[in-house]
């Protein structure tokens, strides 16, 4: 294994290698288990690990959609364009395996929840149901979709409603109980990560920083 620093000029790197580098290094990533509904009523559930929350006012999330083999448009994107609605379900240790199963390339007429017997809960703010087994679900409406060429679309949605399993949030202060939630993060390749090892860091104010550095400077002058 090399011990030298490495640099990559992405203009000269194949997309497959870019993907390997980016998804292997930008970790851990949250997983969006996106549920959509076709115009024919088929409920689709597909995982996406290029996902995150991007704003709280307005409450916005985004996920990135690539294409199927042969550059065919994924069912998720077709359904979002048709209904402008989707539900982002988050993934924990208890649901990780069935989420991974939903990455199988099913045909449009066959939905993953039905194939794997995943119970559904009707939506409260739209036509798309959420997964009953998910610890957290966000009902969203499509705000916009940005296209970045034949193989990539970025879906941005506004969160209309948030649902959590009992015990995920402390009802008195709304803090997340990670011992109950146990989220799973995405790494590179076929690897995932438990988020069990956590630590906390306090942040100084500018005034505290100024006072501390002044005290340290004064202490050095007296030495």
From TrEMBL:
Keywords: Flavoprotein, FMN. Its cofactor is FMN. SUPFAM superfamilies: FMN-binding split barrel. Residues 24-180 form the Flavin reductase like domain. GO terms for molecular function: FMN binding; oxidoreductase activity, acting on the CH-NH group of donors, NAD or NADP as acceptor. InterPro entries: Flavin_Rdtase-like_dom (IPR002563), Split_barrel_FMN-bd (IPR012349). This is Flavin reductase like domain-containing protein. It comes from Azorhizobium oxalatiphilum. The lineage of its organism: Bacteria, Pseudomonadati, Pseudomonadota, Alphaproteobacteria, Hyphomicrobiales.
